[in-house]
Specification:
Strand content of chain B: 25-35%
Structural class of chain B: alpha+beta
Order of helices and strands of chain A: HHHHEEHEHEEEEEEHEEEHEEHEE
Strand order of the largest sheet of chain B: 3-2-1-6-11
Oligomer: heterodimer
Keywords (chain A): Cell cycle, Cell division, Cell inner membrane, Cell membrane, Membrane, Transmembrane, Transmembrane helix
Largest sheet of chain B: 5 strands, mixed
Helix content of chain A: 25-40%
Shape of chain A: rod-shaped
Pfam family, one (chain A): FtsQ_DivIB_C
Largest interface: A-B, 15 and 20 residues
CATH architecture of one domain in chain A: 3-Layer(aba) Sandwich
Radius of gyration of chain B: 24 Å
GO cellular component, one term (chain A): plasma membrane
Membrane topology (chain A): Single-pass type II membrane protein
Function (chain A): Essential cell division protein.
Shape of chain B: globular
Chain lengths: ~350, ~450
């Protein structure tokens, strides 16, 4: 052992000590990743519960996108030029579409109109042709045209080929109406058709006169129809007091008709005429205002004939007695024979 | 007692409100797992008459729409020990169930398994003034029960009238309108530790939930695992959980007694971990995968590989095997000890005097193979392993025995048994308080 010791000492003296060896690295356990807590954090838990609340769900799902869209649109539109660009672009687009060839109206065709009405109609068109059919509001145009007195009905259509066609039904003048402001043509319903300057323009039409006669045109026409036998003598109808008719014949004769039911009264008068030749005699007024009690006003000749037969002095046109000797008028004595019932 | 009355009434109101709204969650905070199931109450009328579905004690009125189970942390012996961790587990479970249900849940009824329950049998008797039993008489006799000293800081969890007697006629379940002179009642009161109960309330409130009821886990497990005849004829339900083994006795469909043995399946896992020197996770795996209680000679030859994974820091990669006989040798004494504890509890409760001595084992630890044989040797011949009742919509994985308390609490919510606070406070009692308050108000203000 001692030899060995010696040897060891000699060995240690002669050679440097062996370097310290690294211990063989044992496989170290791989660092395990810190395990995540499985449960949700309090914030996550609360948010999750909030999200499960129906109100919030709806708010986020519907309200928020709406708000976002509104906000973006509002921001974008807040600039003046962008707004102008947008409206200009839209207007241009609309104009572009509206002025396409398919929508253009080039001519206007009018059927059933007299030349004057035709001219007026063409003048009433709000646009100058050719124009887009979007610019012609047919309903408004129709209403404006039908406001014309001469036109009873009009139908507008835009036909293929760019034709604006108007079918016009004009009012037919049926009667002349003389009133304080002049002379009008009326149709059968009493609607004004046109004004005329004189009776001679339309001699073929009957005449009515008086304030408030126009609304009763139909009645007047019926009366005129009924006055068949005396039609050649008829000068016209006069509306009296805006309530009743007077039939005016030539020779200053007048048939006063009642307010109610004038037609039977007229027939009654015609029947009297047919039986007795009433209107051929010297009768100035046949008063039928009370149909149950017709009143006649006799003419001057007839009165004087009666007076002569009775041996009374005759009267002149003013109703003064005529002295047979003098043959002149005596203004002091008057007679109201004209007022007496016959 | 009055505060408790008000608190329980408030919880009852919350439960009714939740059922009216249609959604109620059941939360089981156990030692080894936290389960949350969400019930939807559709009310009666979801089944047609031709479906042949009766009311079924309220079971047909609800279904499970969300369920989630997560591992529990921060709970020991059925009591919350680390609030933050437990709260996190509860949040996890509730969120998972909510996600499945697609609805937000605000009201929760929870189970409490540990907290040192103590059972008391109370008796009260009153004279009937009107000659027959009225609603007020029932309330008055419940209020007339002599309340023993529960001890410091105990909360009443259940106070159920178990038996009514009018004169000599006993065994009445509904004494109303029965003619007689005297009305007597037996009431079963279950108290638990007040701090544990407060912790539970605190934990639920920290999760932004409202507590709509608390039930004992042993009681709830009994409601779920005992069939109707067993509840009627008398049976004991042993809810073998992770940290606590709850025992509840039922007779005539009422709970007569409840207690808990502070031992459970986690203890078996710890024994395996210590005895075989394997990590707790491996021990749990061994217990659930290969565990057993009855050793056969074949088990000596059946070797189980417990080699840890390479990256595990505890063991350095040596190949290890244990025989199944070793595993059984470790598990069996501990399970025997638990069952011995259960037997002691049953003896204290007077289980021997019950007409039918049926024992139903349920809970997670009841799934150990061979437990029924072992339990029959210790607890008596009538032993069976009970699974919870099937309820509408419950997933397959939640029909295991470990969810008996959850299911039972759902049943309890749908068809609650009468509790003391379900009856109106007797008039005299309320009147005295009201008069005193009025007197105080007058003295302070005039």
């Amino acid at each position: 052992m001692s030899g060995l010791k010696h040897l060891t000492a000699a060995f240690s003296a002669s050679a440097p000590p062996a370097p310290a060896r690294r211990v063989g690295a044992r496989p170290q356990p791989a660092a395990r990743a810190a395990r995540r807590e499985p449960g949700p954090s309090r914030l996550a838990y609360r948010l999750n519960r909030l999200w499960l609340t129906p109100l919030y769900r709806r708010l986020v799902g519907v309200g928020l996108p709406l708000l976002l869209v509104a906000a973006i649109a509002g921001l974008w539109l807040s600039d003046e030029t962008r707004r102008a660009n947008l409206t200009g672009g839209v207007a241009a687009l609309v104009d572009n579409i509206q002025s396409r060839e398919a929508f253009m109206v080039r001519t206007m065709e009018i059927e059933g109109a007299s030349p004057a009405v035709d001219k007026a109609l063409r003048a009433m068109l709000p646009v100058t042709l050719p124009a887009s059919s979007f610019d012609i509001e047919l309903r408004d145009l129709r209403e404006a045209v039908e406001r014309l007195d001469a036109i009873e009905k009009v139908e507008f259509r835009i036909r293929p080929g760019g034709i604006l066609s108007a079918v016009v039904v004009e009012r037919k003048p049926a009667i002349l109406w003389r009133h304080a402001r002049g002379l009008d043509l009326l149709d059968a319903q009493g609607h004004r058709v046109a004004s005329v300057t004189s009776r001679d323009v339309r001699r073929d039409l009957p005449l009515i006169a008086g304030e408030g006669a126009a609304p009763h045109t139909a009645e007047a026409l019926a009366l005129i129809d009924a006055a068949g036998p005396i039609l050649p003598r008829l000068r016209g109808l006069v509306r009296v007091g805006e309530r009743r008719w007077d039939l005016v014949l030539d020779r200053g004769q007048r048939i006063m008709l009642p307010t109610e039911r004038p037609l039977p009264a007229l027939r009654q008068a015609l029947a009297m005429d047919a039986r007795d030749g009433l209107l051929a005699r010297d009768v100035t007024v046949v008063d039928l205002r009370d149909p149950s009690r017709p009143v006649l006003r006799m003419g001057l000749t007839a009165q004087n004939t009666l007076r002569r037969a009775a041996g009374l002095p005759e009267i002149d046109a003013e109703g003064n007695l005529i002295d047979p000797e003098e043959g002149g008028a005596k203004p002091a004595v008057t007679a109201s024979a004209g007022r007496r019932d016959g | 007692m009055r505060d408790l009355y008000e608190a329980q009434r408030a919880m009852r109101q919350a439960r009714r409100a939740a059922m009216a709204r249609g959604v109620l969650a059941v939360l089981d905070i156990g030692t080894s797992k936290v389960t949350c199931i969400i019930l939807q109450f559709d009310g009666p009328g979801q089944f047609r008459e031709s479906d042949g579905v009766g009311p079924m004690a309220g079971q047909s009125s609800f279904r499970v729409i969300g369920q989630f189970t997560t591992q529990s942390r921060g709970v020991r012996y059925g009591e919350i020990e680390i609030m933050a961790e437990t709260e996190r587990c509860v949040r996890h479970a509730v969120q998972g169930a909510q996600k499945q249900a697609g609805v937000r849940v605000d009201h929760v009824i929870a189970t409490i398994s540990g907290a040192r329950p103590a059972s008391y049998g109370l008796a009260g008797e009153i004279a009937l003034r009107s000659g027959k039993v009225t609603e007020e008489d029932v309330a008055a006799v419940l209020a007339a029960c002599e309340v023993p000293d529960f001890g410091r800081n105990r909360d009443v969890l259940h106070a159920q009238p178990v038996n009514f007697a009018v004169d000599a006629r006993s065994g009445l379940s509904d004494p109303r309108d029965i003619v007689g002179d005297r009305l007597a009642v037996d009431m079963h009161v279950l108290t638990i530790d007040g701090f544990a109960a407060s912790n539970l309330v605190q934990c639920v409130q920290r999760c932004d939930l409202e507590l709509a009821g608390v039930g004992s886990a042993a009681y709830a497990a009994g409601r779920a695992a005992l069939v109707e005849d067993e509840q009627e004829l008398g049976a004991a339900c042993v809810d073998m959980g992770g940290g606590v083994t709850g025992v509840s006795l039922f007779l005539k469909k009422h709970m007569l007694f409840a207690d808990a043995v502070r031992m459970g399946g986690d203890l078996v896992t710890r024994d395996i971990s210590a005895g075989l020197r394997v990590p707790l996770a491996t021990a749990e795996w061994l217990k659930t995968r290969h565990g057993g209680l009855e050793a056969t000679s074949r088990d000596d030859r059946e070797m189980i590989d417990v080699t840890p994974e390479q990256r595990d820091e505890h063991w350095d990669g040596e190949r290890r095997t244990v025989s199944r006989a070793d595993l059984i040798g470790i598990m069996r004494p501990r399970v025997e000890e638990i069952l011995d504890g259960v037997r002691e509890v049953l003896e204290v409760a007077g289980f021997d005097q019950m007409p039918s001595r049926q024992v139903v084992l349920t809970g997670g630890a009841s799934q150990i193979p061979g437990l029924d044989v072992l339990a029959a040797r210790i607890l008596g011949q009538n032993v069976r392993i009970g699974r919870p009742l099937r309820i509408h919509g419950l997933a397959q994985q939640h029909t295991a025995p470990c969810h008996a308390a959850t299911v039972g609490l759902a049943l309890h919510a749908a068809n609650p048994q009468d509790e003391w606070w379900d009856f109106e406070m007797p008039v005299e009692r309320a009147g005295v308080v009201g008069l005193r308050r009025a007197y105080r108000w007058f003295r302070n203000n005039w």
